[in-house]
DNA sequence: ATCTGTACTATGTCAGACAAAAGCAAAGGA
DNA sequence: TCCTTTGCTTTTGTCTGACATAGTACAGAT
């Protein structure tokens, strides 16, 4: 028995250096600071991050497997561009995984987790708050599904389409119907119906795919791929 | 115009050194030469492969993201053990992705690809031939689904459960029912019915999951986790 | 038999070096 | 003037060596 008042625990750096680099670059990409197509040479990254080339290279490899950067022939890597082909593939996979996650959530989440999830779809003031609530909704869903593999596959997908998500909601009426879809999903989950939850999730992803595809096609029309 | 008789093309190594290491280690694990739980120190790998520690480390990181090896605290990495929890997670994901792949195959594959797929489920002589045919079936399915992301997510899963697959078919009657399931899937695909194909694939994965889970639980009973 | 200290081993990270490949720019010829 | 060719520079891929840190194992002491 240890003294409950005694807390001498040392919190050691939970992340390795390359992991920190991955996180920082990922966030920078998500925030739009590193736009799609941006070239990243190892030299530049070493200077930007202050870590050695070894660590930079390891981080780049990881970001590559996440699909956030892509090799640029003999120019290092560049921030991945999302073309309509990639968006199609991503949404096809998401359309397979996310309904499954919703179903597993219904089967396994505690009542508290269900309540927390439902709370996220209550009406919010600003658009930013709603987007934030949606991200938290997704996080709760993935946690309650009790499948770390599923989580590790879906999260990178969400990251990749992050930019597109904020873009899709600019399509008139998309944000409203999206919130409606989330509401229906939450209702199905609250009712503890795996089938209805799966169906609702499926409908939502399909609608989101349509909006995202339209958004990216608009982008491609304005800005033909180089 | 170059002289058509003149062929001086140099076929350069298509794979980088770390990629070769990944492939070799992966195959060794799949073949059972590196059994689950086997410790792998960097030093040993450097000696076994003849490449530098840098490349070995990069390969290990990649194998880690594939789930084939897992970090072993301050002992480097070890070949991943498949516990019932991991098997459950893997099959839940597979159950989400593979029916989707079957559906996409129906929608997109050429008639030739369908014919090639159907040919794989014709009766075969030995059990080994049947297993081989099944792997080729999966490869064709993934190719015809026209989704490289889906492919890159399902293939590592197949690799991870490879050992279990060969183990599951030792369960009496499993091989026969498995072949029956593949036959039904092939029929649904030949009929170009996305729904039936998805359903058939779903049934197959569920049955395989059950068999795999039973197999791994037998293993765990005989050989309690250390 | 248990505890303690020390040496060893393994990883994480860094710095530097070199070859190979690709792009770029300048020089030279039509 | 324009095209080709040549050489330089940049960048990646890989290797080597080095050091700090952390965990392990063994031997010696109590």
TrEMBL record, chains A, B:
It comes from the Bacteria. Keywords: DNA-binding, Transcription, Transcription regulation. Residues 15-82 form the HTH gntR-type domain. Pfam families: FCD, GntR. This is GntR family transcriptional regulator. The lineage of its organism: Bacteria, Bacillati, Actinomycetota, Actinomycetes, Streptosporangiales.
């Amino acid at each position: 028995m240890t003294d409950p008042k005694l807390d001498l625990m040392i919190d050691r750096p939970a992340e390795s250096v390359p992991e920190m680099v991955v996180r920082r670059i990922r966030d920078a990409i998500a925030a739009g600071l590193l736009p799609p197509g941006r070239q990243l040479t190892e030299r530049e990254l070493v200077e930007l991050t202050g870590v050695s080339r070894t660590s930079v290279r390891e981080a780049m490899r990881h970001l590559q497997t996440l699909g956030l950067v892509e090799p640029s022939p003999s120019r290092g890597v560049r921030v991945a561009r999302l073309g309509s082909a990639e968006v199609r593939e991503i949404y096809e996979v998401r359309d397979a995984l996310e309904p499954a996650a919703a179903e597993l959530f219904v089967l396994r989440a505690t009542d508290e987790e269900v309540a927390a999830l439902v709370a996220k779809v209550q009406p919010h003031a600003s658009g930013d708050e709603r987007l934030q609530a949606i991200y938290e909704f997704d996080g709760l869903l993935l946690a309650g599904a009790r499948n770390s593999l599923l989580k590790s596959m879906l999260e990178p997908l969400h990251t990749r389409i992050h930019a597109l998500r904020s873009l899709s909601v600019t399509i008139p009426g998309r944000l409203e119907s999206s919130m409606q879809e989330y509401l229906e999903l939450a209702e199905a989950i609250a009712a503890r119906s795996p089938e209805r939850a799966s169906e609702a999730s499926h409908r939502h992803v399909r609608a989101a795919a349509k909006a995202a595809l339209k958004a990216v096609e608009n982008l491609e029309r304005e800005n033909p791929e180089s």
